[in-house]
Amino acid sequence: MVDNRQNLSRKRSIGVVILSLVATNMMIGSCSDEITYPDFPTIHSVEPATSEVGDTVIISGRDLDSGLEGFSVAFSASGFKGIRSFRTSMPFDVAADQMKVVVPDGSFSGQLRIQWDNPFGISGPFDQNLPPAPGDLLDFSVDQKSGEVAKVFYSGSQLEFCLGSSETASDYILILFSGADPVSPSTYYSYMVNNGIETIHGSGALERSHAALSGSVVASGSTALSGSAGGSGSDGRHDTAELRFEKKRRDEIREAIGRERIQKNEPGDRQSDSSVLQTRVFNVYSDIDGSTIAPASFTEVTADLKYEGTHTLLYVDQLTAPACITDAEAQWLGDAFESGIYQTDRTAFGDESDINGDGKVVILLSPVINRLTEQGTASTEGFIAGFFLPGDLIPSYLDHRCTNGMEICYTMVPDPGGLYGNTYEKSRALEVIRGVIAHEFMHMIMFNYRILQYGGGIYATYSAETWVNEGLAHIAEDLNNHEESNIGRANIFLEDPGDVSLIHGGDALDERGAAFLFFRYLGDRFGEQVYRDIVQTKAVGVDNIERVTGLDFYELFADWSAAVYLDGLEISSDERFSYSSIDLRSDFEPLAVKFFDHNLWGLFGALKSMGPEYIRISLPLESECVFIISSDPGSRMNVIIIRTDDYQAARKRVCRE
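The chain above was modelled as a monomer; its predicted structure follows.
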């Protein structure tokens, strides 16, 4: 137990600070003005001192019914360091010398305290509440059952904790993640998990290499991705043709919106958009090294109408060889959008724009798209299967030669004979194109809300962050039953999850795999309405996710990270830690988990910010072990602790020097 005299001294100094802030906030004009407040409660003991999550414990002390408003009992495994370092529970049956409280979800062994959550109900600068005023500390232990998830958001560079077993041997999964703001998406933070031995680390970024990662891998998997909008690169992760192109179009459309509008956009000899034409001329991006907003990078394509629906017009380039796509196959693609994709995406995300007033979305198939991928590189560097160009929806900013002024998606044509460069088997290519259309239509819907509606067609202020935009586009594929590409990307993430940042990036294939699994998890947990809510708001990034889910992002990230491991393991009945729409253990490659033998000195590794690293620790019967996690200064490391054996009794004690 901590010496209460020290705490009383600390409380008095805190009270002075609070009074000073109150005086400032209330603009007290006289030194004689005084504010009195009740005596702060003092706590002496907690019974039982070891409990399980959800148990009721009794706290004994003095002045527990002193009339304070807005106070709670907080539990922390990291000495209450950091704004997220404790979990709170509201007391009940409060008397002068005793109160009851329920051990809150996610708790881990450490300490508890009574804290005044909002002294005097005042607010600090920028409407942020002041930090809680802390009271006495008591040691407290949590018995963690198999499948339970503890969350220690210490956001620091060192944590000491104890794992143990009583009647049985026990297994634990540690999930480390950094909350740091990285210098770049390629920044790594080193860590060491060791058996109670202090270590010293330097600061800065590390280049991740297999040689730097000690410990064996329990399971890992990979896949050669050759799916919807592009295949795998040379390392299966980065710098594919598709990813380079998507970054180009994002950057260039921001540049275009920053320009002055073109007062007169001459259509030349182009046909009127007011009628459905059997033959039509389109401007098509044709130079992969050019600019998506420069006329020199476009070529004119004449195409024939092959499908007309209530919401759909599908055209095929007249220069397409008959062997590439038949009229029946074009009809199948058109109907796939009209009867399926169109309504599925609109229900999930919202409405597309209609800038030309025809109520149609155009799909154009052209060999020009095939030629954007260099011959012979599709299997090694990926390929561009199709896209949506935002410039088509802001024609007043662009030369008429690089915009069509309509809602339009462009796709490659199947090419089983390799007539236009790379060979694409027909049935597979048609399925890939269907997935591309679902993906790009979601981007079109997002652009409508974030740029045209919320930005007034002038500002990109509300443009969604890449990881959100791409993650939802992959959800669009999933909702339209195009699964292969998402499984492939997710498998790359699962192969080395600590090497993948969920939120700092979004372009690489493994980052898209992480984003798909994250947003699929949100849909399973909160219902698929959550996707529409994410699209139709002016909030961006992490703030957007917190607003629509009502949860702190760390809390949500921890739950998702736990679900990635626990899904299908059948040791947790908590629906927060599983998927309902996918089966990770049956349909995906195994998750990579490092193994740390507690008899060894330590395990060293490096991870990216907001990328979960999974480590398994096994302890023999009736053993305890003190562990220390040390990491780079500024890494803001956190840990999720899951007991994973099949037994119910697992003892954890507070470990002291």
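The longest strand covers residues 298-308.
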